[in-house]
Amino acid sequence: MKKFLNNSISLFIIAIVLMLIIPLPAFFLDLMFIINISLSLIILLTTMYIKEALEFSVFPSMLLITTLFRLSLNVSSTRLILTNSGSAGQVIATFGNFVLRGNAVVGFIVFLIIVLVQFIVITKGAERIAEVSARFTLDAMPGKQMAIDADLSSGLITEDQARLRRSNIQREADFYGAMDGATKFVKGDSIMSIIVTAINFLGGVIIGMVQGGTTFAQVLQTFSIATVGDGLVSQIPALLISTATSMIVTRAASESSLNVELSNQLKSQPVVLIISGVVLIAMGLIPGFPKLQVFTLAAILIFLGTRLLKSSVIKSEKDILKDESLQEKPAESEEEYFRNIDNIYELIQIDPIEMEVGYSLIPLVDESSGGSFIDRVVMFRRQFASEMGMVVPSVRLRDNGYLNPNEYLIKLKGEEIARGEILVDYYLALNPGAITGEVDGIDTIEPAYGIPSKWITKDKKELAEIYGYTVIDPLSVLVTHLSEIVKLHAHELLSRQDVEQLLENLKKTNDSLVSEVVPSVVSYGNMQKILGNLLYEGVPIKDMETIVGTIGDYGSSIKDTEMLTEYIRQALKRTITRKWSEGGQIKVITLSTDVEKLIIGAINKNDRGSYLSIDPEVMQKIVGELLEQIKKLKEEINVPIILTSPFVRSYFRKLVDQFYPKAVVLSFNEIDNAVQIQAIGNISI
Question: How many domains are there within the chain?
Answer without folding.
Answer: 5
